[in-house]
C-alpha cells in the first residue's frame, strides 16, 4: 500500500518525458530546435576531426588527402613489359623481333645502345604517359637519369615517382583550400550520421519508452558498421571501376588534366552517397522496431524498391555506364532484403497511449 505523499517511478516501458501527443506546437518546435542543435554540433565536431587529418597532419598520422588520392595513384602501374615495349619502339627499327631480347638486367646505355640521355628521358616520359592512363604524368628531371642504369632501375624509379609525386592540377589559388574544406564537410557529415539518424527517428517517433531508446541507440551504433562498410565498398570497388571507365574513354587522343576540385568532388560524392545508402538495412530495422512499418509492408514494396535503389545508385555514381551503376545497385538491393529480414526479426507493435 502506497501513501498519498509517496512517488512511484514510472515503469521502464512508459514514455520518458510524457506523451508527445500532449505537447503544444511551441513545445514541438522547441524539441525540434534542440535536436537540430545536437545534430549540428555532431556535424561540426566531425568536420573539425576530418580537417585535423586533412590540413597538414603530423607525419605519424594518416592524411585524408593522401587516402583520397590513392585510387588515382593506384591506376599508375609501371611494369617491366611496358618499359620493354616502349624501349623497343624507340631504340630498335623492328620492335617485333627485338622486344623479347630486352631483359630487366640490360642497360640503357650499353646493351640497348642508348647513349643520348635525351633519348632515355623520352623513353621514360613515354612509359609514364602510358602508365598514367588519363592522368597528367609526373615530370621527370634529367638529373635523376644518372641513377638509372638497367631497365629494372627504370621500372623502380617510375613506380616510386608516380606513387610519391602524383599531383592534380590547381586552376585557382583557392582550389586547394576549397577541396580541403569539401573533404571536411563531407567527412563530418559521414562521421555524424549515426547521431543524425538517432535524432531524426527520436523526433519522428512519438513517446519513445526507455527500452525503445536503448534499442534505437544500439541500432544507430549498428548503422555505423554499415556506414563504414559502404564507404569501404565505394572506395575499393566503385571508385576503381568508375575511374577505369571515365579515364579510358578516348585516352589515345585526349590527355586529361584533372583539377583538384573536380577530383575531390567526384571521389567524396561517391563515398558519401554510397556510405549513406548502405545504412538502409539498419534504418529499416529501426523503424520496424519502433512499430512504424512491418516486414510484410516492406516486402510488398519490393517493386518500388528496385526503382528507388537504381535511382540512388545513379545519384551515387555519376557515370553514364550501366555497369558501374549496377555494381552499386545490386548489393544495395540485396541490403534492402536484409533490412526486410531485420524488420521481421525486430518488429514490435507499438501500444496505443491511454486516452
Q: How would you sum up this structure, described in words?
A:
Mean pLDDT is 78; it is low at 1-10. 31% of the residues are buried. This protein folds into two domains: 23-58 and 171-346, no CATH class; 77-164, Non-ribosomal Peptide Synthetase Peptidyl Carrier Protein, Chain A (Orthogonal Bundle), CATH 1.10.1200. It is mostly helical. Helix 9 (210-248) packs antiparallel against helix 11, helix 11 runs parallel beside helix 14 and helix 13 (302-316) packs across helix 14 (322-346). 64% of the residues lie in helices and 0% in strands. The chain contains 14 helices and no strands. The chain starts with 24 loop residues before the first helix and ends in a 9-residue tail after the last helix.
Amino acid at each position: 500500500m502506497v501513501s498519498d505523499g509517496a512517488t512511484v517511478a514510472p515503469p521502464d516501458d512508459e514514455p520518458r518525458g510524457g506523451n508527445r501527443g500532449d505537447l503544444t506546437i511551441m513545445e514541438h518546435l522547441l524539441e525540434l530546435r534542440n535536436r537540430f542543435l545536437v545534430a549540428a554540433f555532431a556535424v561540426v565536431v566531425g568536420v573539425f576531426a576530418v580537417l585535423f587529418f586533412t590540413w597538414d597532419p603530423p607525419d605519424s598520422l594518416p592524411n585524408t588527402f593522401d587516402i583520397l588520392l590513392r585510387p588515382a595513384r593506384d591506376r599508375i602501374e609501371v611494369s617491366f613489359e611496358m618499359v620493354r615495349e616502349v624501349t623497343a619502339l624507340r631504340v630498335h627499327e623492328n620492335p617485333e623481333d627485338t622486344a623479347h631480347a630486352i631483359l630487366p638486367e640490360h642497360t640503357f646505355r650499353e646493351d640497348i645502345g642508348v647513349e643520348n640521355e635525351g633519348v632515355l628521358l623520352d623513353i621514360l616520359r613515354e612509359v609514364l604517359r602510358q602508365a598514367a592512363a588519363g592522368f597528367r604524368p609526373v615530370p621527370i628531371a634529367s638529373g635523376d637519369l644518372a641513377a638509372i642504369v638497367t631497365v629494372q632501375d627504370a621500372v623502380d624509379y617510375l613506380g616510386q615517382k608516380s606513387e610519391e609525386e602524383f599531383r592534380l592540377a590547381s586552376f585557382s589559388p583557392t582550389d586547394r583550400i576549397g577541396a580541403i574544406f569539401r573533404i571536411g564537410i563531407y567527412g563530418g557529415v559521414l562521421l555524424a550520421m549515426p547521431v543524425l539518424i538517432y535524432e531524426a527517428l527520436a523526433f519522428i517517433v512519438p513517446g519513445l519508452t526507455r527500452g525503445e531508446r536503448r534499442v534505437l541507440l544500439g541500432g544507430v551504433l549498428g548503422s555505423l558498421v554499415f556506414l563504414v562498410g559502404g564507404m569501404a565498398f565505394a572506395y575499393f570497388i566503385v571508385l576503381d571501376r568508375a575511374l577505369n571507365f571515365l579515364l579510358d574513354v578516348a585516352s589515345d587522343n585526349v590527355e586529361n588534366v584533372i583539377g583538384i576540385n573536380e577530383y575531390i568532388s567526384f571521389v567524396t560524392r561517391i563515398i558519401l552517397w554510397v556510405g549513406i545508402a548502405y545504412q538502409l538495412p539498419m534504418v529499416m530495422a529501426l523503424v520496424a522496431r519502433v512499430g512504424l512499418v512491418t516486414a510484410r509492408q516492406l516486402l510488398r514494396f519490393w517493386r518500388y524498391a528496385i526503382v528507388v535503389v537504381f535511382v540512388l545508385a545513379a545519384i551515387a555514381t555519376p557515370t553514364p555506364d550501366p555497369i558501374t551503376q549496377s555494381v552499386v545497385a545490386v548489393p544495395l538491393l540485396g541490403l534492402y532484403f536484409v533490412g526486410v529480414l531485420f524488420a521481421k526479426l525486430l518488429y514490435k507493435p507499438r501500444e496505443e497511449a491511454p486516452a
